[in-house]
Amino acid sequence: MVGKPPALLLCMEQALSVATFAIVPARASLVDLMATTDVLAMAEASGVPHLIVLSAVPSSGKSGNQAQAMLTGQKAPVAGTIVHQRQSYVVGLNAGKSAAEVNAGRDKAAASEIDALWREIKAATIAAAKKKARARR
């Protein structure tokens, strides 16, 4: 499983060459969404199952839902869970910890997002493995 920002195409190409599943993080901006186009093409060409995860999305406004709709309209595999911009993530990243570890679990919204995203990624990887196993038969 690999997660790389779409702007790092050479890194993504190398990662896809050894990946069994790719997580493509993207922000909900037009520039970031346009950058996913190349990554999606690379993932499709490599045959690696993949999922776009919208992250650092503002918690107010419609940008996350609009980005999901745009990607879904393009038949891109996009996670239903949106990871919003939260201070807990920033503090956790800077400390090398999770949001729950830096705030004693008080950010319930962050915990809920990550739990939901993990369930979605786990289900997608299991489905991809089953599909691959069926194809081998």
Q: How would you briefly describe this protein structure?
A:
This protein is mainly alpha-helical and 137 residues long. The chain is built from six helices and three strands, in the order E-H-E-H-E-H-H-H-H. The radius of gyration is 15 Å and the shape is globular.
General description of the model:
The chain is mainly alpha-helical and 137 residues long. It is globular. It has one domain: Rossmann fold (3-Layer(aba) Sandwich). Strands 1-2-3 form a three-stranded parallel sheet, with helices on both faces. It is built from six helices and three strands; from the N terminus they run βαβαβαααα. Helix 1 packs parallel to helix 2.
* Average pLDDT number: 87
CATH superfamily: P-loop containing nucleotide triphosphate hydrolases
Q: Give a quick account of the main beta sheet: strands, pairing sense, barrel closure.
A: 3 strands, parallel
CATH architecture: 3-Layer(aba) Sandwich
Classify the oligomer: single chain
* CATH top-level class: Alpha Beta
Annotation field: number of helices: 6
- Low-confidence stretches are none
CATH topology category name: Rossmann fold
What portion of the residues fall into strands of 2 or more residues? 5-15%
Spatial ordering of strands, largest sheet? 1-2-3
Main structural class: mainly alpha
What is the helical fraction, as a range of percent? 55-70%
Order of helices and strands: EHEHEHHHH
> Total domains, how many?
1
